[in-house]
Design goal:
five-stranded antiparallel sheet; five-stranded mixed sheet; Helix Hairpins; 2 domains; 394 residues; Immunoglobulin-like; single chain; alpha+beta; disordered N terminus
């Protein structure tokens, strides 16, 4: 299957403007930092999420410290119990019953703490029944150790299974394009999924990020406006098996309704696109994001086809995923294009009856009182019938 059009030539790209600070990076990272947080203790109220959001090196450090400090803490308590009972002073006394057999120092207490919490049970160091405080400490360490295990294993499992890595295989086109679709200007971009396991219940959204000033003079930085990508018709719900071109029709409700090509190039905005869905393998919700600046919107371009029909299957060529080619596109705004189309329709609407009138006048004298003449000699014009006979008599 041949692909229509030629790929966009690098020499035809519009000149790049001075770099604008992105709100969302191309890889989906939000370029926002939280500063001057006066109540950092709020993060501790949701410690599990805080640990899951940490970087991997910090998560591993916390994982190691959680176990090491717990072992050291209980090891110190076991040593204090042995020291307080005088077990360390009767190490060679066979008549003395210690709290823990063969616990002869802090290192032995630390090893016994590890054996207790991890339930290793080598059998060399063991608690005796003559130490009630040791039995209570053993129960406490077993319970707290299970809680530490559950908490840390849960954090590591969530950290490993986070669906943000799945978003790395959801790709967006490097540029957005503006061209005609069914006679209307549309802003379009392309999305694709590199994996064979699909995103379930995928949906797409688009936001226009642009600062604005209200009628009262209030300045709103980074104001967010929805760009319709088919919510009314259900086109925003995707069956993302092969790459899809997402279209935003520039109509009267669009913020680009009055933007021509030149006005668009002078504007300063960012379009953030958000793809959401559930990972088929795990059932977890996944979100992928990207953005387009003004110089990444190509006017008068269309995406190159990437889908070809092979012997018994369809093949996607991701080498052409980002390629576009130029197509004839008016440089005026969508509003001007709609007004021109309305004037053309009005001209055609009025020109057809006028031509019928001219033809009726030409044929009238030759035909006389023919089928077009009614009572009183009135001729049918502009598609209107003569008045009924009863009305003419009145």
């Amino acid at each position: 299957m041949a692909r229509a059009g030629a790929p966009r030539s690098p020499g035809r790209e519009p000149p790049r403007r001075r770099g604008r600070q992105r709100y969302v990076e191309k890889d989906g990272r939000c370029n926002v930092q939280q500063g001057n947080v006066r109540e950092p203790g709020r993060y501790l109220t949701d410690l599990f999420t805080t640990l899951a959001d940490l970087q991997w090196r910090l998560s591993l450090l916390f994982f190691v410290l959680a176990y090491a400090l717990t072992w050291l803490f209980f090891g110190a308590i076991w040593w204090l119990v042995a020291y307080g009972r005088g077990d360390l002073e009767h190490l060679g006394d066979a008549a003395w019953t210690p709290c823990v057999n063969n616990l002869n120092g802090f290192v032995a207490a630390f090893l016994f703490s590890i054996e207790t919490e991890t339930t290793i049970g080598y059998g060399h160091r063991v608690i005796t029944d003559q130490c009630p405080e040791g039995i209570a400490l053993l129960l406490l360490q077993a319970i707290l150790g299970s809680m530490v295990n559950a908490f840390m294993v849960g954090c590591m499992f969530v950290k490993i299974s986070q669906p943000n890595k799945r978003a790395a295989t959801l790709v967006f086109s490097s540029h957005a394009v503006v061209s005609l679709r069914d006679g209307r200007l549309c802003l379009m971009f392309r999305v694709g999924d590199l994996r064979s396991s699909h995103i379930v219940e995928a949906s797409i959204r688009a936001k226009l990020i642009r600062s604005r000033q209200t009628l009262e003079g209030e300045f709103i930085p980074l104001h967010q406006t929805d760009l319709s990508v088919g919510f009314e018709t259900g086109d925003d719900r995707l069956f993302l098996v092969s790459p899809l071109v997402i279209s935003h029709e520039i109509d009267a409700a669009s913020p680009f309704w009055e933007a021509s090509r030149r006005a668009l190039e002078r504007d300063d905005f960012e379009i953030v696109v958000i793809l959401e869905g559930m990972v088929e393998a795990t059932g977890m919700t996944c979100q992928a994001r990207s953005s387009y600046l003004v110089d990444e919107v190509l006017w008068g371009h269309r995406f190159t086809s990437v889908l070809t029909l092979e012997d018994g299957f369809y093949e996607v060529d991701y080498a052409s995923f980002h390629q576009t080619f130029e197509v004839p596109t008016p440089s005026c705004s969508a509003r001007e294009l709609a007004e021109a189309a309305a004037r053309l329709d009005a001209h055609l609407y009025w020109s057809i009856p006028s031509r019928l009138d001219e033809r009726a006048e030409e044929e009238g004298p030759s035909e006389g009182a023919g089928a077009g003449a009614g009572p009183g000699g009135d001729t049918e014009r502009n598609g209107r019938l003569p008045p009924p006979e009863s009305e003419s008599k009145v």
